[in-house]
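Write out the bound-state structure for pyridoxal-5'-phosphate.
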Amino acid sequence: MQKQTKAIRIQADKSQNREHSVPLYLTSSFAFESAEQGKALFEETEEGNIYSRFSNPNVSEFVAKVCMLENAEDGIATGTGMAAVFASMAGLLKSGDHLVACRALFGSAHQIITQILSKWGITHTYVDASATEAEWEAAMQPNTRMVYLETPSNPGLELVDLEMLGRLKQKYGFILNVDNCFATPILQTPIDFGADLSVHSATKYMDGQGRVLGGIVVGRADLIQPIRFFARHTGPSLSPFNAWVLSKSLETLDLRMERHCRNALQLAEALDAHTDVERVLYPFLPSHPQYDLAKRQMSAGGAIVTIELEGGFERVSAFFDALQIPTLSSNLGDSRTIVTNPNTTTHAKLKPEEKAALGITPGLIRISVGLEAIEDLIDDFTQAVEKSADVVKEKVA
Ligand SMILES: *Cc1c(COP(=O)(O)O)cnc(C)c1O
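---
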């Protein structure tokens, strides 16, 4: 069966009510039919639900679907994407270990690595997304236990070569941990390139409609085991309600990503052709510096388009004022198109040299392309590009 069919057909077992749509299991705990069963469940000689911090039918259904989509053996869901990222590190790393990470990281992942893991004697080395194989190798130490990265990155849309890292993993024996949030398993399955773990903020495309928070880490069963132990006892569990919403959303993920990516490519092409747009970054535009790599490891370019407008914050401000359709928000991965200026919002706290390394300039705009009719988006972005260019010209004159 195709993945799309399975994403729709994988379901929690039906109850005696024969419901067609999976019910919501809003229960903190589960009853034992006998003292014997309670004993067996705790001894793990019998599989079953005990308490929703450990497992819950709605959460298990969501995990089963993501494992299927990612070609993963096992997984664990969490209340947010950051809880998944943290659990994937805290469950596997110990004092004295070294982590190699790609520099272009989601802000909170950067904080975990530099401010939290460091307190426990876990050291790190950052590598640029565009680093060569030799540069990645130069970062390796005898105690390097994990390599952590995002591809494509936020907001610069830089790609890391997963096949190359899969090869390095054979040589150095690290755990390859990939945040696959931007691509989703529909466009990219890191495990097929040798990754051991794939983590997600399910808050983004998996929900895709800006309703709930959630996270998940899937991968090798022997690595998920210590992560599950960590999560079971520290409690970053996903709520059954959010799992129910997310599992339903996975039924349409493939369909939504197809439209998201088609819209994003068309908008990127239209803006690229416009003389008042300084630069357009999109992995599936031939002008992207890693276009060939994008074509090798992704089946479509994703739904984030990053553009650069000349005229700094003043231009950005006029551009945002002129836009009629998009929402101004720092979130992404929504049916509604969202624009943000990373320099003054998501990445505002970075030092100037960190911004420079990530290509974050005052005129950079991240567009999370939604599911609206593409004609409307192109018209709206085009008029706002032109209107904002005029506003800036008038001020100069
Ligand atoms: C949003 C995001 C996260 C964090 O997810 P939350 O659900 O907000 O905790 C992690 N990584 C990436 C790439 C993200 O976009």
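---
The chain has a mean pLDDT of 96.
The two ends are 64 Å apart (CA to CA).
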